[in-house]
Request: fold
Amino acid sequence: MKTFLTTTAIAAFALAAPAMAEIRIGASLSATGPAAFLGDPELKTLEMLVEDQNARGGLNGEQIELIAYDDGGDPNKARTFATRLIEDDEVVAIIGGTTTGTTMSILSVAEDAEIPFISLAGAIDIISPVKPHTFKTPHTDRMACQKIFEDMQKRAIGKIGMLSGTDGFGASMQAQCKDVAPDYGIEIVADETYDPKDADMTAQLTKIRGTAGVQAILNPGFGQGPSIVTRNYRQLAIDLPFYQSHGVASDGFIDLAGAEAAEGVRLPGTALLVADLLAENDPQKPVVAAYKAMFEEKTGTPVGTFGGYAHDAWLILTDAIGRAGSAEPAAIRDAIEATTGLAGTTGIYNMTPEDHLGLDLSAFRLLEIKGGKWTLVE
Reply:
């Protein structure tokens, strides 16, 4: 296997399996740029799984070639690479779209070409309304709102302040939370935003703290912004429950925010973050344990949620190709849509023609940071 640059003008890369490879899988990931903390483990995961699959004889007796490009989080590059993957590289399916923005660019190209596409981004707009050839592995931002509001209900929290990033994910989750809040008796009494490049959010937090009746704060966003918000929150000594989104569900968030600042933060996450705490009879435990062990041995770095999204996309795709007995795009699409009871690191997938995610709220684990570690909220 080898890695090589496809152009000198564009930061792109490809991982090629042996020359006899017959099944070509494409990927456009944000391995560099502002979303690299998401895209880098996604790329490493796909490289690792392709290598492992080929070492075990490939898929349906054929070797697999992964052709991956680094879009750097740029939607325009993602669109260009999606077109190249389909027209020049002749892939049978695409995995990628590290962010919502790059996903929407890839989606439009894949749908026009009728090529199966599995996104690794969170916004509900990716799969609602359902698009024939587009699927995804992470829980939606709407589901994250619902999981958080369920916990707020249990804690008798009725009025909250929101501080949201203006990036695609943050803006989408802000809108989804506003939409579902009344279903849980939640009133959003303060609603502030920040640019992902902002270096300080104390002004917005101070306004929220000063809002009459506010009982908790929710921060929809991803990247470095939520870490800065968390540090500012602690610096202001705000004594209110604090919630983050699954967009920061990784050890990297704790490292950036600082364990002391992140103490007590709650968010919805995946089984991967609490692998050692899963019950022995948990149906996700075997796949979570296997991926965790393989990734950490291969990379020497801790496993995380975002690599897990890529793992599950690969699992869904190879399971579909295996069941279809064909690597034709139409057959793959139909088989993905018929996925049932497939345990991944993010949840147990049950796709239908009406649901191209296949996860429900039970797949989310409500987590709390204690002593710099992830713990399960009972």
Notes: The two ends are 45 Å apart (CA to CA). DSSP finds twelve helices and 16 strands in the chain. The chain has a mean pLDDT of 93.
